[in-house]
Structure to design on (910 residues):
């Protein structure tokens, strides 16, 4: 990057909000994804939309790519920098601007931590349901840009289902407001939906208008343990078949269970082969009835034990423990590679079995957990990036899992995004005119390919290749 | 790159078992628990950011630079990240190795820094008799009225700013130290159930020898006979946390030599910061053929007082003479370093006539952090203010905490706010109850 560009960034923001030293940049060279790593040219911290717009204009004039970042908890390398780019970090834009209790909406700057959004809604007796496991760390902007899911996806849907509007800075620096507080709105294309899940490739979302719902008055959490993997999956199928839609149906296999217990120490039954965490919420009478039914179904499918959480505290403890699953798995091997393949719910049992078989075929260690209720699995490879031979086998197993997912009518990513980690597999899922359509949209909005280039897919003119981004170590 | 001297070597980080660094999968779960990241919002001031710098050094992508050195000393070492980390990263080990590399390479070296480190770390805290002689002089100065006089006439305005700010933080020295208050061996009235060794500490001994006496009283009331070696030295945590590994090793050997390890069921520490270091002598001395085995036994017997009382089952304390409302502040190295946070609360709740009020952010560092309030007064001051505000919010007239550094930091902070909230060690409250038989 030209020194003049840095100088102009410094005078635009403030010298303290433009980082360039090696010690400052190294910690921004990665996100929550394993292996991927690249130093940016600088990191900048705008404090408002005007500053974001000014940085974008400057980058546009100097042809410098911009990688937008929140807390850097992404799991597909979406916010991993590309060589010689500006990392634009939105964390200083972290205010909740309005909670509208008449229209049940919340307006916030996108650097706001997801948990603060949840708390801000709670303070008014309202509820913001999407709860990615990183919610205490991640930003709402990152959630919107990746269309994050979470533990409550089964009943409440994902981030997209709560985005009513947004302010976005376009690649030429123009600022656009998309959407509004109306429940119904069919004026023009639903442009806001174009930006949800766009992974920073189309625009920089600076404010977001979110839908809130009334806080469910009651909830109950149950824990069932099984001696086989299938019994848990069958319980889930039966619950859905009996037309119960609980807010959470989470599954952990034994490896995951043991790692989580080692960290959380809350007395999870580590001798069980699999564990199902179930939660129902809503009117207290409905909750009681559904909880009783789910307990009976679990027992019918041979659950060793069904435990009901004593109170909200224990329920929260269980959910927190579940949220630690991915990180807790890092206890087993040096490198932890997480996937989030998702299949139609009816094909779950097949998928679970296939993951086991693929791991066995290639002699790699895999742990499995995930959102059983919505078909979103997290097969997690426990490996060592310093062992190229083993990494190769991991890749082979992963390729088979992706292929099988697509064969079952599933998707290569349910909630983490494509980023860098999954872009190789995207063409297999977008087999018709849809794949070029993605690129045409990108080309129309960002003709110079300056917003997070090389993520989701490579354009012909892409300045960076996947190989370049691999940690060479 | 930073200077023309030969490149400083990061021997420890470079030879460290790489899997310890790899254990961090940079998920970011540590971020909201880190006080310095909370302050700046910059990744380099976060646990995963610091680990990434250490990893860059181990990988040869970064040299030992002064900026890296400053970063490692900006870290409080509070270990809140360790509690938060699902992956189980041993941050304390990484952090101490990084600081040791920094000291070996002398990248932060200045004349002034060298002098203070020589005086405090390498001299006073290596020599228990010298430390106590200084304590004696300080006691004379404080109790003779000289300190009050100097304060009244504003003599401290003549001191350079950093010393001037330190003066009010100097601990109030006790009239008698532990050896004067505790016999070498004390036995309970009834036949003892256990025999334990007692660590009196260094700062603890000078400023809180009464807490040591209370600890022994509580142990006696719980059927433990207590052996207390004379004129004990610093446990070496100061040295370990500040990159003086060789001195820390020496002090560990001395501490072990004070006890016949076969003769005691447990060795008791009542200071959170010390306990957290004392429990890892095994790691420190793993390459010492004469001490490795002994150190492993030591580790297994080393117990924090609250942990020990919880383990053996607390003898039900009698009621306090008058009702008492208390809130509890977690010493970082007791709760994050040793995982002891339930036990002190349970002990307090077991005391009749005592009401325990929850403290918001109870496990957020108070800014004492060993010598951090001396080396980084600005950040330490911010944390102290935040802690005191939370304590005042509870409206409890008493706050309990189990580490001399926190104790002093809270005392000073409360005094600055004009509060007369009293700081206690939980054990002192227990001892008061047992005395009310």
């Amino acid at each position: 990057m030209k020194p003049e560009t840095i100088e102009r960034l410094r005078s635009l923001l403030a010298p303290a909000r433009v980082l360039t030293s090696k010690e400052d940049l190294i910690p921004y060279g990665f996100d929550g994804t394993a292996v991927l790593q690249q130093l940016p040219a600088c990191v900048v911290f705008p404090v408002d939309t005007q500053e974001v717009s000014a940085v974008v204009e400057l980058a546009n004039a100097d042809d410098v790519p911009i990688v937008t970042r929140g807390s850097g908890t992404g799991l597909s390398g979406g916010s991993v920098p590309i060589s010689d780019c500006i990392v634009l970090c939105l964390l200083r834009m972290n205010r909740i601007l309005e909670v509208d209790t008449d229209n049940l909406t919340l307006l916030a700057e996108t650097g706001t931590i997801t948990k603060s959004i949840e708390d801000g809604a709670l303070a008014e007796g309202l509820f913001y349901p999407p709860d990615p496991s990183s919610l205490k760390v991640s930003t709402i902007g990152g959630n919107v840009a990746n269309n994050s899911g979470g533990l409550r996806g089964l009943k409440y849907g994902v981030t997209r289902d709560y985005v009513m509007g947004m302010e976005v800075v376009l690649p030429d620096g123009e600022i656009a407001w998309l959407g509004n507080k109306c429940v119904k709105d069919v004026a023009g294309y639903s442009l806001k939906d174009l930006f949800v899940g766009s992974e920073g490739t189309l625009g920089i979302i600076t404010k977001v208008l979110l839908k809130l719902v009334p806080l469910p008055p009651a909830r109950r959490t149950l824990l069932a343990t099984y001696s086989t993997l299938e019994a848990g999956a069958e319980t889930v199928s039966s619950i859905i078949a009996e037309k119960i839609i609980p807010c959470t149906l989470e599954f952990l296999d034994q490896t995951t269970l043991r790692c989580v217990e080692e960290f959380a120490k809350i007395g999870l039954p580590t001798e069980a082969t699999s564990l199902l965490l179930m939660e129902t919420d809503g009117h207290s009478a409905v909750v009681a009835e559904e909880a009783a039914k789910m307990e009976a179904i679990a027992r019918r499918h041979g659950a060793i034990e069904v435990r009901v959480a004593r109170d909200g505290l224990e329920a929260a403890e269980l959910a927190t423990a579940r949220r630690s699953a991915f990180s807790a798995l890092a206890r087993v091997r040096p490198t932890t590679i997480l996937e989030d393949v998702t299949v139609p719910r009816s094909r779950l049992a097949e998928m679970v079995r296939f993951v086991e078989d693929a791991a066995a075929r290639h002699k790699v260690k895999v742990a499995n957990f995930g959102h059983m209720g919505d078909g979103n699995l997290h097969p997690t490879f426990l490996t060592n990036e310093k062992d190229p031979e083993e990494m190769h086998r991991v890749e082979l197993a992963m390729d088979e899992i992706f292929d099988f997912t697509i064969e079952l009518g599933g998707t290569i990513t349910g909630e983490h995004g494509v980023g860098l980690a999954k872009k190789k597999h995207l063409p297999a899922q977008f087999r018709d005119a849809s794949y070029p359509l993605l690129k045409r949209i990108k080309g129309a909005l960002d003709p110079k390919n300056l917003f997070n280039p090389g993520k989701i897919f490579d354009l012909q003119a892409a300045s960076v290749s996947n190989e370049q981004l691999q940690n060479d170590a | 790159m930073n200077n023309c001297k030969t490149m400083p070597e990061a021997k420890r980080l470079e030879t460290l078992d790489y899997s310890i660094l790899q254990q961090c999968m940079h998920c970011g779960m540590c971020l909201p628990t880190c006080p310095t990241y909370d302050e700046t919002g910059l990744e380099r001031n976060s646990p995963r950011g610091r680990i990434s710098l250490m990893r860059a050094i181990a990988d040869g992508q970064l040299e030992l630079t002064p900026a890296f050195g400053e970063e490692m000393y900006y870290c409080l070492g509070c270990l809140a990240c360790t509690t938060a980390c699902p992956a189980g990263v041993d941050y304390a080990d990484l952090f101490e190795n990084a600081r040791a590399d920094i000291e070996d390479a002398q990248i932060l070296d200045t004349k002034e820094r060298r002098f203070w480190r020589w005086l405090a770390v390498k001299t006073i805290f290596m020599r228990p008799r010298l430390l106590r002689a200084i304590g004696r002089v300080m006691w004379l100065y404080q109790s003779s009225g000289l300190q009050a006089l100097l304060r009244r006439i504003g003599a401290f305005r003549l001191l350079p700013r950093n010393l001037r700010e330190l003066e009010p933080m100097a601990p109030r020295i006790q009239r008698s130290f532990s050896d004067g208050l505790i016999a070498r061996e004390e036995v309970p009235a009834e036949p003892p159930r256990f025999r334990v060794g007692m660590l009196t500490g260094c700062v603890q001994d000078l400023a809180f020898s009464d807490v040591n006496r209370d600890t022994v009283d509580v142990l006696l009331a719980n059927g433990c006979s207590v052996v207390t070696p004379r004129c004990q030295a610093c446990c070496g945590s100061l040295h370990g946390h500040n990159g003086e590994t060789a001195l820390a090793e020496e002090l560990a050997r001395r501490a072990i030599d004070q006890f016949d390890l076969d003769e005691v069921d447990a060795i008791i520490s009542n200071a959170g910061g010390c306990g957290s270091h004392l429990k890892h002598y095994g790691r420190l001395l793993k390459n010492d053929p004469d001490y490795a085995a002994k150190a492993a036994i030591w580790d297994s017997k080393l117990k924090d007082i609250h942990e020990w009382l919880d383990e053996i089952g607390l003898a039900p304390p009698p009621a306090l003479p008058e009702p008492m409302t208390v809130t509890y502040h977690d010493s970082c190295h007791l709760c994050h370093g040793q995982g002891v946070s339930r036990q002190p609360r349970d002990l307090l709740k077991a005391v009749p006539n005592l009401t325990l009020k929850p403290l918001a952010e109870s496990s957020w560092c108070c800014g004492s952090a060993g010598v951090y309030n001396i080396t980084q007064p600005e950040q330490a001051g911010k944390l102290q203010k935040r802690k005191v505000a939370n304590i005042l919010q509870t409206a409890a007239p008493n706050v309990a905490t189990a580490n001399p550094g926190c104790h002093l930091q809270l005392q000073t902070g409360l005094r600055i706010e004009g509060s007369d909230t009293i700081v206690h060690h939980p054990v002192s409250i227990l001892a008061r109850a047992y005395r009310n038989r």
